């Protein structure tokens, strides 16, 4: 690591959940439409979603849904490109995730939250 890069990282500070939500909701620094992800306390720019990405996510969603809906009761749900809360320093937006009902209740933010 070069000296300037080391100094840059020495000045980094992780953003907490409270600070992240304040920047989006109250301060208006970011909007819900901005393509950013909050990972391990850092804001990371997300690339635009292209046709190949879109096609793959749609195919995987169909595959998982067909399998899950073959049960008498729904054992889990497929969440597509929705943010999930992971502790105090992260709210990634995975392309696709399969969550049990218990995990869904814990990791998905409440409506308006």
Largest pleated sheet:
2 strands, antiparallel
Give the DSSP E fraction (strand runs of 2 or more residues). Answer: 15-25%
Question: How many extended strands?
Answer: 4
Quickly count the helices.
Answer: 4
Poorly predicted residue ranges:
none
Numbering strands along the chain, what is their spatial order in the largest sheet? 1-2
The string of secondary-structure elements, in order, is HHEEHEEH
Determine the fraction of residues in helical runs and give it as a percent range.
Answer: 25-40%
Q: Main attributes?
A:
16% strand; 113 residues; 38% helix; 4 strands; alpha+beta; two-stranded antiparallel ribbon
Explain what the structure shows.
There is one protein chain. This protein is an alpha+beta fold and 113 residues long. The protein is built from four helices and four strands, in the order H-H-E-E-H-E-E-H. It has helices at 3-10, 17-26, 51-68, 101-107, and strands at residues 36-39, 42-45, 76-80, 96-100. It has a two-stranded antiparallel ribbon. A two-stranded antiparallel ribbon has the order 3-4. A hairpin with a 2-residue loop joins strand 1 (36-39) and strand 2 (42-45). The longest helix has 18 residues, at 51-68.
Quick description:
Helices cover 38% and strands 16% of the residues. The chain has helices spanning 3-10, 17-26, 51-68, 101-107; strands at residues 36-39, 42-45, 76-80, 96-100.
């Amino acid at each position: 690591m070069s000296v300037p890069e080391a100094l840059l990282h020495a000045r980094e500070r992780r953003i907490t959940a409270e600070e992240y939500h304040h920047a989006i909701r109250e301060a208006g620094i970011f909007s819900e439409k901005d393509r950013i992800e909050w990972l391990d306390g850092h804001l990371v720019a997300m690339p635009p979603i292209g046709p190949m990405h879109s096609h793959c996510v749609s195919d995987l969603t169909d595959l998982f849904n067909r399998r899950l809906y073959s049960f008498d009761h729904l054992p889990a749900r497929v969440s597509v490109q929705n943010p999930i809360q992971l502790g105090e320093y992260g709210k990634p937006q995975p392309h696709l995730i399969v969550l049990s009902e218990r995990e869904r209740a814990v990791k998905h933010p409440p409506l308006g939250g």
